[in-house]
Structures are given as C-alpha cells and as structure tokens.
Amino acid sequence: MEMEYGKGGGPHFTTYRTYYIIRTVHLDGFDESDESVQYEVTTGVGRHFVLRRPSLLASRNLDISYSWYRNSNQVTPDATHFVTADGDLVVTGVKTGDFGTYKLMASSNDLTEIVSKEYTVNDNGLSPPLQNSVSIIYFPTDRTIIETLMPHDEVFDCVTSLGSKDDVRIRWFLNNQVISGSEVGMATSLNGRRLVISNPSGFTRGEHKLECRAETAMGRSSDQKAIYLTFISRPVLKELAKEVHRTVGSNLSLKCGVKRKNPSDIKWYKNGLM
Question: Which InterPro entries would you find in this protein's record (predicted)?
C-alpha cells in the first residue's frame, strides 16, 4: 500500500491501493543444525538403513531434484536403493559395497547446487538376518493439504525391509478402499512403493485415512502403516474498499474478514512491512 497526501489547499487524505510483491527464489543450503538428522549410521550385511535429508534453507515449493553419492560415485536407484520424494535414501539388503561415506546433492532449475555434510555408514559385523518377514521401514507422517489454485502433486512413499525384487506385494488404501492406480488423479509406481495424488484440491474437505499394506507371497508375513490426510479450503479474503479517504488526525479502521470458515492467520502489511 502507498500513501498520498492531498495538495492545493484541499483536505488532506490517505489513499490505500493494492500492489504486487515480486519474490525471488533461493536455495542456500542444508540446515546443518538439524538435530533430527543422524550423520553416522551403523548396520550390517543383509539389513537396512535410512539416511535422512536435513532441512533446507530455501524458498518454499521449489521443484528440487536429489542425488546421493557414495564415495564420490552416484547412487543409482534400483531394487534395493530408493531415493524418496523428500530426498531421503533408503537401502535394503545391505551389501559390503554399501558401507562408506555418503553426500546428498540438491538442485533446482538454474539455482546453485547445494551439497550436504558427509554421512558415514559403518559395518557392525553381525551375521545377516533371516529374511522371512516383511516390515515397512519408511512411511510419511500425517499431512495437511491446503487447496491451491495451481496444480500440484502430493507424493507418498512406502518402503519395506525387503527389496522390490523380493516377492512383496504393496497396496495402498484410501478410507479403507483399495487404490488400483487407475483412478483419475492417482498413480502408483516403483513396484507400488510410490503413490502420487495429482491436484488433490478436489478431495472432500476433512480427514482421510491413507494406508500402505505390504505382504509376502501367500501372506506368510505382512505389515501395514497408516496416516491421516487433512484437506482444508484455501482462505479467501473478503474484498476491502479500494480507496478510503480520511482527514489527517481522524481514525481509520480497515476490517479484514475471511469468506470461508477455516482457521486463518491474518496479517496486515504496510509498504511491505508487517
């Protein structure tokens, strides 16, 4: 908003006008103070491990690509090496060649590529476990999805302790109804380990249960995990008067309201400052 003052002897007044803010995007680095990240991991042959991405120091909603490197060689995603949508690395059926040092690189369009601190994966020397049961070792947490005017995807990963080449069947369920992957706006890939919901704004508002179920051949072993997706409408502000005239020294009251009854955090800005 900008302020103008009357001239030529007339009454002084203030005019409030709408303006546009142009924001630049940035990808500055990884937050090395993120205490949720474990940079040294110990595991054994035939077991599994997860290396989690640190928080990003970056603009929101960037389209970011992640690449993991072990001993300077890029890790190629395959049946036992899985890079999640969040940039985490999940390795199952660990082999001796999986031990060593790792780094994560992230890039987004023309922004400068960033590199994480070094991770170390050590061998505990234990004998390989018997692979006769399946467990889900990587799954997302509850998520709130806000309606948006721009199409976007919500991605969910479900990774089991057995590699995708093992005889493991992964199925997704929404509100206890199986997802085949042929539904409009839904697709599964990577042997069922990834579910993509495209432009989920059309979902009924409220809470929905999303579940992943994994089982081995003949149902000898199984595991399941579930989260809740909460869909809420985009806040829509009631229109304000485009111009308000007041004499200098008089009171000015601008009321901001929301058309839809959603929990909303309303902030006022003047000349770009809150």
Answer: Ig-like_dom (IPR007110), Ig-like_dom_sf (IPR036179), Ig-like_fold (IPR013783)
